[in-house]
Design brief:
Strand content of chain A: under 5%
Shape of chain A: elongated
Order of helices and strands of chain B: HHHHHHHHHHEEEEHHH
Largest sheet of chain B: 2 strands, antiparallel
Strand order of the largest sheet of chain B: 1-4
Radius of gyration of chain B: 34 Å
Number of strands of chain B: 4
Structural class of chain B: mainly alpha
Largest sheet of chain A: none
Number of helices of chain B: 13
Helix content of chain B: 55-70%
Oligomer: heterodimer
Order of helices and strands of chain A: HHH
Distance between the termini of chain A: 55 Å
Largest interface: A-B, 75 and 106 residues
Number of strands of chain A: 0
Distance between the termini of chain B: 92 Å
Chain lengths: 103, 366
C-alpha cells in the first residue's frame, strides 16, 4: 500500500498548521479566526496519526487524536458561546471592535 | 515499559544519527524550500482579502498555486527518483485537496464559504487518515468535525451575519457586495505571511533535511528497528491479545507419602491466565482503539469526558440569553400569544372547523 515516508505526512500537517496560523493572524472576523484554529488542529491531528502509524502501528497517536477532537469540540462550543456574547454587545463580528481590550 | 521508552528513544534519535551519516542527502534542497516559501508568502499576501483589485488577487492565487505545484512536483520527482513504483496516488490527491481548500478557508472573504471549504479540508484529511490505517478516526473526524462542529459554526455565522448586515433593500441593490468591512480587509497580511511562511520554510527544512536517505534506504533496514517506514505488518496481527500461559504451582502436602523421592509433591498445572475471546483486530478498528483506551489510558479518557461536560455547561452559561425587556412588553407578548381572549372550555362552544362562521357550534345547545 502506501510506501510514502513519514516526512510527507509531516509536511502536509505542517503546511495545514501554518496556513491556519496565517489565517488566525490576518482574519478579523471572530468566527473565521476560530475556524483557523480548527485548521491548525487538523494539521496536528494528521501529524499525530502519522507518527502513530509509522511507529509500530502504535495506537497512541489515534488515542491522542481522540483527545484532540474532545478539546476541539470543547473549544468550539466555548468559543462560539463567547462569540455570540460578544456579538450581542457590539453587534459586529469584527475583532477590532474590541480594540480597547489591548490594555 | 522500559522497552517502550527505549524504543521511543531510538525513534527520536535515529533521524539524528542517520543525518550524521555522510551520504544522507536532503530530500529537498534548502534553497528550493527558501524560494518556495518566499513565493508562497508573496502569493498569500496578494491573495488575502483586501481592497485590491480582483486581478491582483487572482495573480496571487496563481503564484501560490505554482509554488505548491513546484513543491509537489519536486517531492514526486524525489520519490520517483528512488525507483519507487508503489507511490500512493491517493496521498497526493488528498493532500492537494486539503491544502488548497485550507488556503481558500483563509482567503475567502465570506465566512460561510470558509466553513464549507473547511468541510472539504476535513474530508480530505479523513482520506489521509484512511491511508494511515486509522479508519475509525476518519469516520469520527467526519462525524464530529463536519457533522457537529461545523454545523454549530454555520449556525453562528448565519445568526450573526443576518443581523450584522442591516442594509435595506435599496442599499443592497446599490451595494452589490454586502460584506462586512472586517471581512473585506485583512489585518497585517504582509507580516502574517512573512511569519507564517518563515515558519513553514523552517518546518519543511527540518523535516526534509533530517530525513534519512529516503524511503528505499529505510526499507532496507531490519523491520524490528523503528524506521520512518510504515511497519509492514499484516492487519490482524497487531494488538492481538496474547493468551499467556502461567504455571500455577500448587504444593500439596500429603501426610503419609508427603515426599516423592525426597521432594515435596508439587502438582504443576498449566492454565490460561486470561481467557481471551477477542478477535484479532486491525489497528484502526474501533475495537482496537477502545481496547487500547480502556486498558492503557483510562484516566485520560475519563478526564476527556469531564472536560467535555464542563465545556458544555460553561458554553450554556456563557451564551445564556439575558434579555432586558421594557416594562409592559412581557404583558403585551402574553396578550399577543393568547390572542387577548380567554379560552372558553365549554364543550358546546367548540367551533366547527372548516366553516367561516366562528359562532357555529359543533353541539348546538338547542
Amino acid at each position: 500500500m502506501t510506501q510514502l515516508a513519514l516526512q510527507h505526512y509531516l509536511a502536509v500537517g505542517g503546511i495545514l498548521f501554518v496556513i491556519g496560523l496565517i489565517g488566525f493572524i490576518t482574519r478579523r472576523n471572530l468566527i473565521v479566526i476560530f475556524l483557523c484554529t480548527e485548521l491548525m488542529f487538523q494539521g496536528v491531528a494528521i501529524n499525530l496519526i502519522a507518527f502513530g502509524r509509522y511507529h509500530y502501528n502504535d495506537l497512541g497517536g489515534q488515542a491522542f487524536t481522540i483527545y484532540l477532537l474532545v478539546i476541539a469540540a470543547a473549544e468550539a462550543s466555548l468559543a462560539l458561546g463567547l462569540v455570540v456574547l460578544l456579538f450581542r454587545q457590539k453587534n459586529t463580528l469584527d475583532a477590532d471592535a474590541w480594540r480597547e481590550l489591548k490594555g | 515499559m522500559a522497552e517502550d521508552l527505549a524504543n521511543a528513544a531510538r525513534f527520536c534519535f535515529e533521524p539524528l544519527l542517520a543525518a550524521a551519516a555522510p551520504d544522507a542527502a536532503p530530500a529537498l534542497s534548502p534553497v528550493l524550500i527558501l524560494i518556495l516559501a518566499v513565493a508562497a508568502g508573496i502569493g498569500t499576501f496578494m491573495l488575502l482579502p483586501s481592497k485590491r483589485e480582483a486581478t491582483i488577487r487572482k495573480l496571487g492565487g496563481v503564484v501560490l498555486l505554482a509554488a505548491g505545484l513546484i513543491l509537489a512536483a519536486s517531492l514526486i520527482h524525489y520519490v520517483a527518483g528512488l525507483n519507487q513504483h508503489q507511490m500512493s496516488l491517493y496521498f497526493w490527491i488528498f493532500s492537494a485537496i486539503a491544502i488548497l481548500s485550507a488556503v481558500r478557508v483563509v482567503t475567502h472573504p465570506r465566512p460561510v464559504y470558509s466553513a464549507l471549504y473547511f468541510v472539504l479540508t476535513v474530508l480530505a484529511s479523513a482520506g489521509l487518515f484512511v491511508l494511515l490505517w486509522a479508519e475509525f478516526m476518519a469516520i469520527a473526524l467526519i462525524m464530529i468535525y463536519a457533522g457537529a462542529i461545523l454545523v454549530t459554526y454555520v449556525f453562528v455565522i448565519m445568526l450573526a451575519s443576518q443581523a450584522s448586515n442591516p442594509a435595506t433593500g435599496a442599499e443592497r441593490a446599490m451595494n452589490a457586495n454586502p460584506l462586512a468591512e472586517c471581512d473585506q480587509i485583512s489585518r497585517e497580511p504582509l507580516v502574517a505571511s512573512a511569519i507564517g511562511f518563515t515558519m513553514m520554510g523552517v518546518l519543511l527544512f527540518v523535516i526534509f533535511d533530517r530525513a534519512t536517505g529516503g524511503p528505499m534506504d529505510l526499507a532496507a533496514r531490519p523491520a524490528t528497528q523503528p524506521t520512518t517506514q510504515p511497519i509492514a505488518a499484516a492487519p490482524g496481527t497487531i494488538q492481538q491479545p496474547e493468551i499467556q500461559l502461567t504455571e500455577v504451582r500448587t504444593t500439596v502436602s500429603v501426610p503419609d507419602s508427603g515426599t516423592v523421592m525426597g521432594m515435596p509433591a508439587t502438582i504443576i498445572t498449566t492454565q490460561p491466565a486470561r481467557v481471551s475471546t477477542q478477535a484479532p483486530f486491525t489497528p484502526g478498528s474501533p475495537q482496537a482503539i477502545g481496547t487500547y483506551l480502556f486498558r492503557n489510558q483510562l484516566v485520560n479518557l475519563e478526564l476527556a469526558g469531564l472536560i467535555l461536560t464542563i465545556a458544555m455547561v460553561g458554553a450554556i452559561l456563557i451564551a445564556r440569553r439575558q434579555v432586558v425587556l421594557p416594562a409592559g412588553a412581557l404583558a403585551a407578548a402574553e396578550a399577543k400569544l393568547t390572542g387577548g381572549d380567554l379560552v372558553n372550555d365549554n364543550p358546546h362552544s367548540i367551533p366547527i372547523y372548516g366553516t367561516h362562521d366562528p359562532q357555529a357550534k359543533a353541539y348546538p345547545e338547542s
